[in-house]
Amino acid sequence: MHAPIGDFDHARPAPDCLDLLVPPVASAVRTWPGAVPAEQLLYVDTDPDLADTAVFVEAYGADLLETSANCVVVAAKRAGERTLAACLVPSSTRVDVNGAVRLQLGARKASFAPRDTAVGETGMEYGGITPFGLPAGWPVLVDSVAAGMPWVLVGSGSRRGKLIVPGKALAELPGAVVVEGLGI
After folding, report:
1. Are 124 and 155 in contact (CB under 8 A)?
2. Mean pLDDT of the chain
3. For residues 58 and 63, what is the distance between their CA atoms, to the nearest angstrom?
4. Ranges for the YbaK/aminoacyl-tRNA synthetase-associated domain (predicted)?
5. Rounded distance, CA 159 to CA 46, Å?
6. CATH of the domain at 175
7. With 0-12 CB in 10 A as exposed, 13-18 as middle and 19+ as buried, what is 131?
């Protein structure tokens, strides 16, 4: 199957690639509850040495700069309580941690979670974190631009491989909240 975006050799339905996904992502794909059929969640193999954005775009297609999204873990604090959440924004933007995230989570303070926390809590590799398979109960803040894209390239849970999904599937993720202006 030809990938709908990027210059990848071939794309396969993610349910056919569970053995290539880290356990929490494989579980999320296996039990996908959304209206978008799981077969429309596609997996593409990528070289982990080409993961940096500029090199990745050069290798796999210039259109990916406008059709990919980054998922980052944030830690929000309010009244001594810490909340972890994921934020998904178009790759051409950055997460508005001190504005949109703090407001959405009702936090006094919000910041990017430390690398060890992000990796340890998600069970995913740094640089491959995806909104699929996050811990139960986590808010997943999705920028409205990403949710409105026909197809979006996101991480697969590891630095090797990516998922290409319909943007509307992002709004169907467990805990998803679509936020205007999350990416600035």
Report:
1. yes
2. 95
3. 10
4. 50-172
5. 8
6. 3.90.960.10
7. buried
